[in-house]
Specification:
By secondary structure, the protein is α+β, with helices and mostly antiparallel strands. It has 1 helix and 6 strands. Helix content is about 15%, strand content about 25%. The structure holds a DNA duplex. This is WRKY domain-containing protein.
Length: about 140
DNA sequence: CGTTTTTGACCCGCGC
DNA sequence: GCGCGGGTCAAAAACG
């Protein structure tokens, strides 16, 4: 399968539909994820790292869009109401517990629904790389 | 060789 | 109490 590379920067102006769905008590995936063994919250439990959820609708012939981070696919399941399967991705950073879900819209196969869960706690490499020369130039001009 | 991708199987929570 | 659904992990294979 071909790679996109800088698709994030070459994104067409179609990726403008941003839907905010910050609601629902998604919490920690109801069913799966049982493998975890550190859920033994003592009496002080109650505070759970609730990760925010953001759904983005992107129109692209490609399934996956590189938003500047590295994603590793860890699962794929078919969804009801949709003839297309849903792909589960995760940030490859060990310090980053961000999850991403990509699902194709049944109405338009060209539309993909990207759902981001969590927040990156590490700088964006791609973005940094893209800004590296620019930042350097800025510093150079500032210092001058 | 390292990393990533793919399929199957497993587990837990909730529903009835 | 049991069954189903959904989600995740694991191992092997493929790719660069």
């Amino acid at each position: 399968m071909p790679e996109l590379g800088l698709a994030s920067l070459l994104l067409p102006s179609a990726a403008a539909a941003v839907s905010l769905q910050g609601d629902e008590a998604e919490g920690e995936a109801g069913g799966g994820g049982g493998r975890s063994n550190d859920k033994s919250t003592p009496t002080t439990m109650g505070k759970k790292a609730m990760s925010p959820k953001f759904a983005f609708r992107t129109k692209s012939p490609n399934d996956i869009l590189d938003d500047g981070y590295r994603w590793r696919k860890y699962g794929q399941k078919a969804v009801k109401n949709s003839p297309y399967p849903r792909s589960y991705y995760r940030c490859t950073h060990h310090t980053c517990n961000v999850k991403k879900q990509v699902q194709r819209q049944s109405k338009d196969a060209s539309i993909v629904v990207t759902t981001y869960e969590g927040i990156h706690n590490h700088p964006c490499e791609k973005l940094m790389e893209a800004f590296a020369p620019l930042l350097k130039q800025i510093q150079f001009l500032t210092g001058l």
